[in-house]
Amino acid sequence: MPYITEHLSSLRQEITELTKMNVRYSEHSEHNELELTARELRTNRLLEIKRELAKMLDRPDDPAVWWERSRRPNQAA
Prior knowledge:
Shape: elongated
Strand content: under 5%
Helix content: over 70%
Largest sheet: none
Structural class: mainly alpha
Oligomer: single chain
């Protein structure tokens, strides 16, 4: 259970940081290529977090199975 709390806290912090960076980005009307790429990476990361949180809602009844499955690299089903 502590791992879940720590993981969620870490995700919350990451979301906060990404959001702050996006706010700073939006305060300017012109952006160079590096800024555009960084924004795209932030957007992709936020989508990854969203998918990860959705997976958490579909977890198996046994938490050991859930965390073991999430630690392994993606494998073909």
